[in-house]
Amino acid sequence: MKTLILGVGNELLSDEGFGVHFIRHLRAHYSFPDTIELLEAGTLGLMIAHKLEEAGRIYIVDALAAPGAPGECHRFTKEDFLLNRVPVKLSPHQVGVQEMLLVSELRGRCPNEVHLVGVIPASLSPGTELSPVLQARVSELATQLVDELRAGGAQVAPSQKTDALEAQ
Length: 168
Fold this sequence. Notes:
The protein has 168 residues and is an alpha/beta fold. The protein has one domain (3-167): Rossmann fold. Helix content is 39%, strand content 21%. It contains 6 helices and 7 strands; from the N terminus they run E-H-E-E-H-E-E-H-H-E-H-E-H. The chain has helices spanning 18-29, 49-54, 78-82, 92-106, 132-151, 160-167; strands at 3-8, 30-31, 36-42, 57-63, 73-77, 113-119, 157-158. It is globular. Mean pLDDT is 85; it is low at 163-168.
């Protein structure tokens, strides 16, 4: 089964770009098998529908508006999307993802497993860097996702580039 890890968000609005920064962190620190695809979708929304429909399992990583403290993580499943239980969204690209999943479901091509990993932002100010609160969460959440993938049998290894840097 193909797994897609999709990082969405506007990287010009600090924490709104969490998903994109998350994918870059995964690429820099881990090596993934061909059955797992990492995609920086940014704000593409409906333009990536074909990628979602090719996967059997997807993880969507993004910032989202929900009750709680900045940096707090919330997880949602396919059923949460289809039953409209995902909290208020931050930006138009998220509407595109939710609509895309609904259309895929109607077409009978929605992945069996859909997971949204949403993090509450601390800042949506213009800027390309994450706030310190969310920057601290990137590595932790990446480790959790990698552990989950490994528990499911995926052969995810530390990146050789990371190993070489740590040896210096």
